[in-house]
Amino acid sequence: MDQRPSWLPLVTGILLIASGWAVIYLGWQRAAAQKLEVGQLPYIVSGGFGGLGLLLLGAAAILMQVILHTSYKERQALHDVAAKLERAAGAARARDDDTEESGSRGGRRNSSR
C-alpha cells in the first residue's frame, strides 16, 4: 500500500497565506504612515505584490495537499475493490472446482426440492 501523503504542504500553505496577509497589512500600515503619495508607492507595491505572491503560493500548496490526499484515497479505494474482486473470484473458482469434482465422480446432483 502507498504511504500516506505528508501534511507538510497544508501546514506550509497555511503559513504562507498568513504571511501574505501580514505582508499586505504591514505594507498598508507603512504606506499610511507616509505623508506624500510618492513615498507610499514603494510600500504599496512591495507589500501588495509580495503579499499577493505569498497568498498564491499558499493557495497552491494547499491545493497540492488536497490533490495528493484525494489521490491517496482513490488509490486506497481501488486497492480495496481489487481485493474484494480477488476474494470473489477465489470463491467462484472454489465453487466451480467443487461442481466439477461432484460431476466427475459420476454422482448426480439432487435437483428435487
> Number of helix segments?
2
- Average pLDDT rating: 87
Distance between the termini: 47 Å
Helix content: over 70%
Element order: H for helix, E for strand? HH
Largest sheet: none
Give the percentage of residues in beta strands.
under 5%
Number of strands: 0
Rough shape? Answer: rod-shaped
Q: Return the structural class.
A: mainly alpha
User: What integer value in Å does the Rg equal?
Assistant: 32 Å
Low-confidence stretches: none
Task: Give structural notes.
The chain is an all-alpha fold and 113 residues long. 83% of the residues lie in helices and 0% in strands. It is built from two helices and no strands. The protein has helices spanning 8-33, 37-104. Helix 1 runs antiparallel to helix 2 (37-104). The chain is rod-shaped. The protein starts with 7 loop residues before the first helix and ends in a 9-residue tail after the last helix. The relative contact order is 0.13. The model has no long low-confidence stretch (mean pLDDT 87).
Short overview:
The chain has 2 helices and no strands. It has 113 residues and is an all-alpha fold.
